[in-house]
Specification:
This protein has about 400 residues and is of the alpha/beta class. Helix content is about 35%, strand content about 15%. A seven-stranded mixed sheet has the order 4-10-9-8-7-5-6, with helices on both faces. Strands 1-2-3-13 form a four-stranded mixed sheet. The structure holds pyridoxal-5'-phosphate. Pyridoxal-5'-phosphate binds next to helix 4.
């Protein structure tokens, strides 16, 4: 038994910097899509690990791989060749393209992409990167500046030079921002934190064309959409658009800290020795975990499972709309689910939690669910029943 949520909260109040808003609960163990708190209460988690626990809590093959690897070798620096790193790079790149660089988080993956864009454009004086309003790329200074949401910038200026912000789906706006100093366009193929926003049909293709016309790199931030989340290995594979650079993290190693940047073969040499590094990046433990996640997704046919569940969820949520006019729009791509309301979505989180279901609210009015990719239909149904009930209560209160 642990020490209980109350004692953990007291320890935090004394010793931990309060930079997060936390629910007053300590989660201590989990299995599949269920997680238990320190006081023995069980929850059905439709947002496990903020989308990192892509195979749910403690999936056996991942646990075994971590245990085996930890017993042999946890970490060696990148001054040595690391067998698991090579194998995981092969796994990822043979399902996408190019070559991989490993780090530990989404922000770091995006920093690597920003550096690569500048190094690539450096010879011709190109350094500017165009990103999109409502996007989210992380909290380190480069990634933060790339994040075109003023609320995350407050009090932190001056930010990094060299970013310009465009509006999603506004191609003319993007075109006007391009000049001789522009190096790249960076976008999430589906904005996650921005509210599960899917670009209008053709927009990503048009960005690709613009990049080709002007010699810019197209960077897709797939930190949230990657690793099977959308029903294909990577979100771009459903868009018909091939980016030059891909950034990954979150579910990459099933909850073990891991990030990656993948770039076209011809660009790889731009990140030459000495220009970028990460002490923990690509360590044996994270790489073994990533391989176990990838192999499990493939062996258990999880991509197909995600696609068929997505169909089901889309139909199910569409059937709610007639009855619940507070639902403005439903956006589903694989196990990335956004329910946009006409009213603030935050109250739904607490109301669902009281009923034992964990969800997320983002971008003021959007309910976001990122269930484990192997969530069962039964667990999903149970959670959706609760969400529907909560939305009905919220509608009645208006
Ligand atoms: C699309 C996207 N990019 C980058 C990040 C930052 O990732 P991290 O928190 O691992 O730095 C996130 C995190 O939510 C994200 O959703």
């Amino acid at each position: 038994m642990g020490i209980g949520s109350k004692a953990t909260i007291e320890t935090f109040e004394k010793w931990v910097i309060p930079n997060y808003r936390r629910y007053p609960v300590a989660l201590v163990r989990g299995e599949g899509s269920r997680v238990e708190d320190a006081d023995g209460r069980s929850y059905l988690d439709m947002f496990p690990g903020w989308g990192c626990n892509i195979l749910g809590y403690s999936p056996p093959h991942l646990v075994q791989a971590i245990q085996d690897q930890a017993a042999r070798l946890i970490h060696v620096p990148n001054t040595w060749y690391i067998e698991q790193q090579g194998r995981f790079a092969e796994f990822l790149c043979s399902r996408s393209f190019g070559k991989a660089f490993f780090c530990n988080s989404g922000a770091e993956a995006n920093e690597a992409a920003i550096k690569l864009a500048r190094l690539h454009g450096g010879g011709s004086g190109r350094y500017r990167i165009i990103t999109f309003e409502n996007g989210f790329h992380g909290r380190t200074f480069g990634a933060l500046t790339a994040t075109a949401q003023p609320k995350y910038h407050e009090g932190l200026g001056p930010l990094m030079a060299g970013f310009r912000y465009a509006r999603m789906n506004d191609l003319d706006g993007v075109r006007q921002l391009i000049d001789d100093e522009t190096a790249a366009i960076m976008i999430e193929p589906i904005q996650g934190e921005g509210g599960v926003r899917i670009p209008a049909p053709g927009f990503l293709q048009s960005l690709r064309q613009l990049c080709d016309e002007h010699g810019l790199l197209l960077i897709f931030d797939e930190v949230q959409t990657g690793m099977g989340r959308t029903g294909t290995w990577f979100g771009y594979q459903q868009t018909g658009v091939q980016p030059d650079v891909l950034t990954l993290a979150k579910g990459l190693a099933g909850g073990v800290a891991c990030g990656a940047m993948i770039c076209r073969d011809e660009l790889a040499a731009d990140l030459r020795p000495g220009m970028h590094a990460s002490t923990f990046g690509g360590n044996s433990l994270a790489m073994a975990a990533g391989l176990a996640v990838g192999e499990t997704i493939e062996r258990e046919g999880i991509l197909e499972h995600v696609s068929s569940l997505a169909e089901y969820v889309r139909d199910e949520l569409a059937s709610w709309q007639a009855e619940l006019p507070i639902i403005n729009e439903i956006r589903v791509c694989g196990m990335m689910i956004g329910i946009e309301l006409t009213i603030p979505s935050t109250p739904a989180v607490g109301m669902c939690m009281e009923r034992g279901v964990l969800i997320n609210a983002t971008n003021d009015t959007v309910i976001r669910l990122l269930p484990a990719l192997n969530v069962t239909r039964e667990d999903l149904d149970e959670a959706l029943r609760v969400v529907r009930q909560v939305l009905a209560e919220m509608a009645n209160e208006i």
